[in-house]
Amino acid sequence: MSDKQSSVLLIYTGGTIGMKEDPADQTLRPFDFGSLMKEVPELNKFGLRIDSLTFDPLIDSSDIEPGMWRKLASTIRDNYTRYDGFVVLHGTDTMAYSASALSFMLENLGKPVIFTGSQLPIGRPRTDGKENLISSVEIAGARRPDGSPVVPEVCVYFNSLLLRGNRCTKVDAAGFGAFQSPNLPPLAEAGIDIRYNTDVIRRPSGKEFRIHSGLDTRVSILKVHPGITQQVVEDILLGSLTRAVIIETFGCGNAPSRDWFLDIVHQSVANGMILFNVTQCLRGSVNMDLYATGRALKDAGVLCGYDITTESALGKLFYLMGNYDDNQTVKSLLEQDLRGEMSN
Ligand code: ASP
Questions:
Q1: Domain limits of the chain?
Q2: Count of helix runs (H) and strand runs (E) in the chain
Q3: In principle, which of 69, 248, 304, 330 could form an S-S bond with 223, CB 3.0–4.6 Å?
């Protein structure tokens, strides 16, 4: 084991975790990050070097934009050689989107990037923020006997579970167990010890780490539902300013089989639109060979999203379209597993 002290950079972007009750008017306000170590003295017990960096402005994560992802990616790149791991404090509402996007933007990542947050501010007596933060820091600084990081992935840590970032989704608006990755076991579970699921954790490629900041956001999401109208489907699938549509389908990838629906899908593909089939179900995978309705989509040129989450599909499309101008390359990479985001 290398005896060099591990170092972790905490990047604070906003969200509930960092808010504190202002005694004057009892409203929640962003926390003075300089006093974090005072608020969470347990962090000193790891023997890690912990530095922090606060984004300005701090935001509720409902306001997250790709610009913030670029800033996060470049912050990690600029500090990559100085730290063993990174902890990103982030609001829970869009954490799964940010973790997914970052997993694609950070290529050949060899260090942990752990997103965490909380349902209750860190200053509240029953806060979940302390445990989330403390364990995230421990995981970000954890090294194997050969000195390499235990979890060189973009992850979300929440309520004792370490989840792959591009596999997780927010499933609870109020409970402490806010995140799940329904199609992949946790990368670790924290109990008395942190038990790492080493069979699931990806190892680095060994190639040079680099970031991708080009993101093409011309993506729409069409959630099919009983009673969906022709006008709505046309507006989305034939939109001239859109390059790709995630079609959130029923079950294992099924959509209405009415003629008008399939005609629009055909026309959309003929117009050059990239159509990506992602299931509305939390668990399980798209399989367009199972039912005639799914097969009709496949025959029309709709691509299979297997068990990818919508959050991850969005990040993958932004990233691929931002990096490749030709749709053929985007389409062939969409159906490949690039960062452990899907089982195909
Ligand atoms: N609205 C908050 C946010 O996402 C909620 C939270 O942090 O839990 O920033």
A1: 7-211, 219-334
A2: 9, 18
A3: 248
Regarding the beta carbon of 61 and ligand 1, being less than 6 Å apart is answered: yes
Read off φ and ψ for residue 131, nearest 5 degrees. -65, -40
Q: How far apart are CA 151 and CA 98, in angstroms?
A: 18
CATH top-level class of 7-211: alpha beta
Decide whether any atom of ligand 1 lies within 6 Å of the 128 Cβ.
no
Fold matches, 7-211 and 219-334: yes
CA of 177 to the centre of ligand 1 (A): 14
pLDDT tens for each residue of 139-192: 999 999 999 999 999 999 999 999 999 999 999 999 999 999 999 999 999 999
Find the 5 Cα to ligand 1 centroid distance in Å: 33
Burial of 331 (0-12, 13-18, 19+ CB in 10 A): middle
16 tagged catalytic = yes
Give the burial class of 326: count Cβ atoms within 10 A of its Cβ; 0-12 exposed, 13-18 middle, 19 or more buried.
Answer: exposed
**Residue 92 CB–ligand 1 contact under 6 Å:** yes
